[in-house]
Amino acid sequence: MRYRWLVGADGHNSRIRSLAGLDHIVGEEVRFGFRQHYRVAPWSEFVEVHWSDCGQMYVTPIADDAVCVAFITAQKSMRLQDAISHFPVLASRLKNAPAEGRPRGAITGSRRLRHVQRGNVALIGEAAGAVDAITGEGMAIAFRQAIALADALRANDLSLYEAAHARIMRVPRAMAALMLSLDGHPVLRRRTFGAFQAQPAIFDRMLAIHTGAVPPVSFGIGNTFSLGWHLLTAQS
């Protein structure tokens, strides 16, 4: 087959990445994700994130009478049904809710590649590396990469995409590292959530940075000192 460009958009286990010799991984951390649908009326219109020492539970309303519950953990032997008891508030809401279908699982994590292009081949989405699903950034990252790749193809220069890819991944990777540090340190997590509760404007600003609405430098010295003070003085 003849082609001018070949784009590998074939996911985490990309065959195109392997065939193009682009599967040199320079950093990887793996976690495990599971999801199950429950027949119960959503109690909130928002996506909820529940934290525990064993991982995070995500609750998403998907219908007037159903929610999707996802669980992500670093513990290979932990399963969603076993983990629910570690989230008392969520467990009480799901106590009498029948599960629909079978639970599904997948591997998630952070992966960094040395290069995401070579010759006339470029990688996009999870084929080009990934950040942990805790960021909720997977689809958004792929859309940003698609725009950058289109610009590089128009300019006939995939090195432009390589540079843009690095910029696109910088903030999500930093945010993933920050959130996963909370996952591994319960005392720090409680102090951080206490600080966000006391100063919701700080959380709003960090969320805006995370979604790309404002640049990281907008966090400012004042917010940095305020967050640091609350982390030092919050009850653990």
Largest sheet: 5 strands, antiparallel
Major sheet: order of its strands?
3-4-5-2-6
- CATH superfamily annotation of the largest domain: FAD/NAD(P)-binding domain
Q: Based on the structure given, which CATH architecture of the largest domain is correct?
A: 3-Layer(bba) Sandwich
Please report the total strand number as a whole number. Answer: 8
The dominant shape is: globular
Strand-residue fraction? Answer: 25-35%
Helical/strand content category = alpha+beta
Quickly list its features:
236 residues; alpha+beta; FAD/NAD(P)-binding domain; D-Amino Acid Oxidase, Chain A, domain 2; 3 domains; 3-stranded mixed sheet
Write a brief caption for the model.
By secondary structure, the chain is an alpha+beta fold.
